[in-house]
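cron nightly-structures :: item 1 of 1
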Amino acid sequence: MTARRIIHIVDDEAIVRASIVSLVQAHGPFECREYADGEACLAVIDAIEPGCVVLDLQLDEVGGSKLIRALAERQDRFRMVVVTGLSDLATAIEAFRFGAVDFLHKPYEMRALLDAIDRGFHLLEQGGEPPALVAEARARLARLTPDEARVLALLIQGGTNQDIARMLGVDSRKVQIDRARALAAIDAPSILAAIRTAAIAGWPPAAG
């Protein structure tokens, strides 16, 4: 992997793209490429240089969904950070399934974006998450009781409290309690934070 760090910024607002360029270039020696929409990036995806893609995903934009899938097939060349102004947990879960480094809701903390970009380049250059970050995430998840782990695993797959109660044959109240305890145990303020922790840890491990 080349030492050059190239960030591809996909956002339909020129002022947002310019703001991200200014931010990341103040953070490090990044080269930035800008695209006004997902289709523009998708059209040249096999010709552009490898790097980290910061993608503003609007749920009604077909190009954004297509681009996520295309990037998922090219994770040896690209890693993506998805940002959106729309709060939709199902979309976040889907983005992580397709290999997103992170999923950030607008307005997001600039530090969170920079950290995600750094992780994206670490994945490209080293082939994995930073070991210390993985160890921390796994240590948090190791605090879970078996009941909490079962509930959390189903939650990060998109299950609702009612769905999980039916699947496990328990009362929905127990699911709510296990959910709250699981988030507290791993220091996750939200399900999205729990999904992020699980993704970093590679948890739950694949069956087989």
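cron nightly-structures :: done
Strands lie at 5-10, 30-35, 51-56, 78-84, 102-105.
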